């Protein structure tokens, strides 16, 4: 799938970017592979390379979490350079990297950022040590799950070579879920199939995800120094143009409010020198808490008093990489706060109510759930046996996060269209909805499209709202399929 470079949105929504932090989930979350000798400081002839991953969606797949235990590049001289397992300096271990892909829906998000010797690389080898595929079928009302534990190594030629010079580079790996996950006669297979593209980190504030622009990078603050801080994928710099805000009772007006252990979400751009410049920083919660992120598959009560979510990311106390693509139960109380993760995005002017609270929470929405303490172990007897129940928690705050859907355009106008959903769509099988009304704003970016016309197959990425029994969608990005 070709994607133009006009979009600004990264997609590890989810605030699910627990980037390279052991004990967390999400894009770049780590699962330990052992201690060892830390890497030496890269020589001057090394340059930062950001590896992104994303997916071309498969309609029936609800979640797909993969663990990358090895990734290495081969240059034109035949020399191999490993980037995964990566050294995690806060905890001093080498880590594999686990990432949930289905929620990205045609966009990419950071997997790992490493310095590589300068030169030209013409292939990359990736070992997927495990994968968990959670899916829906017309014959079942509940999510089904298949776990693959046999390692698979894929050797991928780079049709456009990765040329590492003095400027930070970006390699984008697109796991084609539609080609990778097979379903026939009740059997599920997983054969990872990747497409690649290469770009340069321009440092432009309007950089696309493929160029190193990130929206919703989530992590735990490891340290601060002046106007910068470290979190997951490295050093992040703030400036006069950086906005600070808070959610779920947290307040943040600037760097002076930041402390170690804090959970933040950051919109940022990779700079040519391999550091990040933040356009916005949002305080999600203080240290010592937990924040899972995922798709709601069931709710109890109106207003909702409980929700089951399948994780596509998360971070904090007790979180582990094998939680991804599995279910947890979240209790909601009268003191639970609700918010929309719309930092840097305008949701004004939509022709439907832009509301998110316990009365407007619905199956199919992507949310982060924050709370103190950690996720408690199961059992919860109401959970069906068709998938793994990882436990439960009580939420002090719930935030609506961006997500993706795919389908066919109908009733297109200048302000939006109806997205007709495939009959085997996991969203349709969960909710019963066969279509969603999509609204375009002045900020909506088109990827691979010059306009929206009827009968086009597209992926939309943005915010899903539920009001008066109907689903409505504010699109941040629309990508041609």
Could you give a quick summary of the protein structure above?
By secondary structure, this protein is mainly β. It is built from 2 helices and 31 strands.
State the helix count.
Answer: 2
Low-confidence stretches: 1-38, 380-385
Structural class: mainly beta
- Rounded to an integer, what's the Rg over CA atoms? 21 Å
Characterize the structure shown:
By secondary structure, this protein is an all-beta fold. The protein folds into four domains: 29-36 and 45-204; 214-285, Beta Barrel (OB fold (Dihydrolipoamide Acetyltransferase, E2P)), CATH 2.40.50.320; 289-400, no CATH class; 404-480, Beta Barrel (OB fold (Dihydrolipoamide Acetyltransferase, E2P)), CATH 2.40.50. The chain has two helices and 31 strands. It has helices at residues 177-180, 426-431; strands at 29-32, 46-56, 61-75, 80-84, 86-88, 93-100, 108-117, 119-135, 144-148, 152-164, 169-176, 181-184, 187-190, 194-200, 213-220, 223-225, 228-230, 235-237, 243-246, 263-270, 276-285, 289-300, 306-316, 327-340, 366-372, 389-400, 403-413, 416-420, 435-447, 457-467, 470-480. Strands 1, 3, 4, 5, 6, 8, 9 and 10 form an eight-stranded antiparallel sheet that branches. Strands 15, 16, 17, 18, 19, 20 and 21 form a seven-stranded mixed sheet that branches. It has a five-stranded mixed beta barrel with strand order 22-23-24-26-25. β12 and β13 (187-190) form a beta hairpin. The radius of gyration is 21 Å and the shape is globular. The N and C termini lie close together (6 Å). The relative contact order is 0.17.
